[in-house]
């Protein structure tokens, strides 16, 4: 039986190509909690989650990656943010009707895929590609091609495992500074492409690799846990409050007696009353515990 919410890395012994395999279930469920998204939006968030997990696993440094779809369609925004520890969060914004069978283009409309890489130390990098491909995987491959990074292929599947929604994906990438033959890479990609949602989401990683590459020599490394984690905090909200015009905050306090800040990612509420606001303005840290 497949163990979900784990990311596996693997390496082909006879080719300068590496691979990744991830499946998610709980992490996806947590991201969907506290929201009432139409099914096609849930699916896109699952695909984005898988993609972000695979992308953050390619980072050679600590930091995070945000993969974001935005456009003029009924799903104006879908975003997943994840870091090198595979801690993930995400949200979508939906306006108007979403047809039950809406594909990516119908959901996003005229739009873009925006990838932001933020190292813990150093320069932030942002890549933007138009939505040329029909699937998220194709759009991401387009991004890798245009940003002149290493040749990369992605394979993303959504479905169910043990009666629960699950999503999974695989990534193949040429190793840097080595001469992987284009033919070899294409051969491995052709093999990988045959993976079905059922196989990927129900078989242990070892069995998936055997099924795809039984004629190749593949080393599978210990998995890394993938989990939902939001980075919001009362302190960060207090920082954000400081950037708002004082009159605006005072008006809210006068009308409601408190400022209720809501995190779109996890649904947490952070409530600040008049005393807290005074404390924040005096740069003291607000004393109240966070309110769920
Ligand atoms: Zn949060």
UniProtKB/TrEMBL annotation:
CDD domains membership: Hsp33 (cd00498)
GO terms, biological process: protein refolding
Protein's UniProt keywords contain Cytoplasm: yes
Localization in the cell: Cytoplasm
PTM comment, free text: Under oxidizing conditions two disulfide bonds are formed involving the reactive cysteines. Under reducing conditions zinc is bound to the reactive cysteines and the protein is inactive.
Record keywords, A-Z: Chaperone, Cytoplasm, Disulfide bond, Redox-active center, Zinc
SUPFAM superfamilies: Hsp33 domain (SSF64397), HSP33 redox switch-like (SSF118352)
Protein name according to UniProt: 33 kDa chaperonin
Function statement: Redox regulated molecular chaperone. Protects both thermally unfolding and oxidatively damaged proteins from irreversible aggregation. Plays an important role in the bacterial defense system toward oxidative stress.
Disulfide cross-links: 230-232, 263-266
Family: Belongs to the HSP33 family.
GO cellular component, one term: cytoplasm
GO molecular function: protein folding chaperone; unfolded protein binding
Pfam family membership, one: HSP33
Entry-linked InterPro entries: Heat_shock_Hsp33, Heat_shock_Hsp33_C, Heat_shock_Hsp33_N, Hsp33_helix_hairpin_bin_dom_sf
Source species: Franconibacter pulveris
């Amino acid at each position: 039986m497949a163990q979900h919410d784990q990311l596996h890395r693997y390496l082909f012994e006879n080719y300068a190509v590496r691979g990744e395999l991830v499946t998610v279930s709980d992490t996806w469920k947590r991201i969907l909690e506290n929201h009432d998204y139409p099914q096609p939006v849930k699916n896109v968030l699952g695909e984005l989650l898988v993609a972000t997990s695979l992308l953050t696993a390619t980072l050679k440094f600590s930091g995070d990656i945000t993969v974001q779809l935005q456009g003029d369609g009924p799903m104006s925004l879908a975003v997943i943010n994840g870091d090198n520890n595979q801690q993930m969060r995400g949200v979508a914004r939906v306006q108007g009707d979403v047809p039950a069978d809406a594909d990516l283009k119908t959901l996003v409309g005229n739009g873009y895929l925006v990838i932001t890489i933020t190292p813990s130390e150093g320069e932030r990098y942002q890549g933007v590609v138009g939505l040329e491909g029909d699937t998220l995987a194709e759009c991401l491959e387009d991004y890798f091609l245009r940003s002149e990074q290493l040749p990369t292929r992605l394979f993303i599947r959504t479905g169910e495992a043990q009666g629960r929604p699950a999503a999974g994906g695989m990534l193949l990438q040429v190793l840097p500074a080595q001469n992987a033959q284009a033919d070899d890479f294409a051969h491995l990609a052709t093999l990988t492409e045959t993976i079905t949602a059922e196989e990927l989401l129900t078989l242990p990683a070892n069995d998936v690799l055997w099924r795809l590459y039984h004629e190749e020599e593949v080393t599978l490394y210990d998995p890394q846990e993938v989990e939902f984690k939001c980075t919001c905090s009362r302190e960060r909200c207090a920082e954000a409050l400081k950037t708002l015009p004082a009159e605006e905050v005072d008006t809210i306090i006068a009308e409601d007696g408190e400022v209720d800040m809501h995190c779109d990612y996890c649904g947490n509420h952070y409530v600040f009353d008049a005393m807290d606001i005074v404390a924040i303005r005096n740069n003291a840290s607000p004393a109240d515990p966070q309110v769920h």
